[in-house]
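Batch manifest line 198
LIGAND: flavin mononucleotide
JOB: complex structure
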Amino acid sequence: MFHVVPNLSAAIKAVECGVDGLVVEGGEGGGFKNPRDVATMVLLPLVRSQVDVPIIAAGGFVDGKSMAAAFALGAEAVQMGTRMVSALESPVHENWKNAIVNAKETDTVFLNRMHSPALRALRTDKTTRLENSPEVNAMAEFGKAIDLYFGGDMESAIALTGQVCGRIDSVRSVRDILEDVRREFFETLEAMSNRYLG
Ligand SMILES: Cc1cc2nc3c(=O)[nH]c(=O)nc-3n(C[C@H](O)[C@H](O)[C@H](O)COP(=O)(O)O)c2cc1C
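JOB STATUS: finished
ARTIFACT:
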């Protein structure tokens, strides 16, 4: 069993409870979050330095370069959420996929910092309103997910999405995504080896 953790103390507690491995997820990722978010770049090497179990890195991964970075920081695998939500085979409505493709890296909001769980989601009129009303519990205003997921009404609910939306510029098949990730991962290792070890 792998447990998702947002900080070092949760990672150590999970390992002490006997998990087989960890999903170490930084606050830039899409979805439900710890209100005290920590970026993958800080969290992943920190957790790696304190635990011996296998780590799947999550939050910000989208291609072979970012996967190589995760491996350099101590992960054995990466998990891609936003990239797969926007993949061709993903069952969500094309409005959401197109919104991810068109989004800049600054087009997500971090909601519910004063409540729990916090969430990272795509910026829309609804989520901008919630961002500007930190006293409101966003979970109470979540809305009708089915109208968003399958009806494509981007204002009906909260479209959980990570900052890496800014690095996604087309809807692609899962096969193409994975083949490119794999190829670019090895190209990156080779290029770095040639540049710094050659
Ligand atoms: C639409 C959406 C739904 C998600 N649902 C879950 C979930 O139910 N459980 C979970 O552990 N993580 C969930 N996540 C988080 C992902 O599994 C993944 O760790 C995260 O998206 C990684 O960051 P990224 O978006 O930068 O790739 C979700 C993410 C998205 C975008």
